[in-house]
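Ticket #4471: structure output looks truncated?

Reporter: J.K.
Steps to reproduce: submitted the chain below (330 residues) through the standard prediction queue, then opened the result file.
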Amino acid sequence: MSSKARGLADLGNAFDDGALSNRNLIINGAMQVAQRGTSQTTTGYGSIDRMILSLSGATATMTQETLALGQTDLPSQFRKFARIATTTGNNNCGLLHRIEDVDTAEGEVTLSFYAKGTNPASGSFNVFLYQGFGSGGSAGVSTTAQSLTLTSSWQRFEFVFTLASLSGKTIGTGSNLEIDIVQPDADTGTSAWTLDITGVQLELGDGPATPFEHRSYSDQLQACKRYYQQKNDSGNALASGIWYSASQVLAYGKFDTTMRAAPTITVSSGDFAKCYTRGTSRDTLDSSPCDNIDVNETRYNLTVGVSGTQGDGTHVQLNSSEAIYFDAEL
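Returned output as attached by the reporter:
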């Protein structure tokens, strides 16, 4: 048996034995998690976790779709996929995914995914990786783009890329390795197209791609919460603390999991929460409620509309139909 054949056989045995876990560098590659909702029409993060809709002047919607039970043109384990549907396409419109730390991978890597749809005006998409070195770092660099041509049936595609050497590079803050599946630079045609995609996997080495590494929803949700969390269920407990004065509450609240960086925190409105005191509650009047933010917790420094009693303990709880958002995305 040749060394290559022996290597592939050993790889297959290792896969069967479960020894290849955590080989996929992509988070949420099966499009399972969508904390923000199942549809977006604006650029950036807005629906499927860790997936960026790049518009670049195009008009498009990205949605989380559900595969029918018993579908036969994909492995039966897949249940969700992302759909980008344009009404007017444009160059660089498509799907992006950013992997934390540009030095996660170097040398050869293998990207694979399942996709179907209709092609842009040029007849194909560009697929490439961008090594961004972050703020204050060396200039980022892209691999050579490869072509992706879709049909109306699901197919598995595989691409091998050689990443630039990091030797001598200055790695800056927020560095990342970005996967781009986009309409080509020179293609400014306005024809509509659709990209359906799932099972996105990036592995170290020059292939062939191994079977997609399925992970549980709970595992992927926890991984996604490193970058984004939200609380939007009526009555969600936020923190416990004290009335610092008659109109100010101080309370510390933990995040669901450690975040990538101290997050940006926004709320749905100034009265997003209520603070309990002596058997009743007081609504907040604060649209910038947090300070002392780190990767694990934040202090709620809240202005409250009706007087409490200084020194009393308090429980801070989300108001009905309100929400708070914690964003540490790349």
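Triage note (M.O.): checked the attachment and the full token line is present. The first helix runs from residue 3 to 16.
Status: closed, working as intended.
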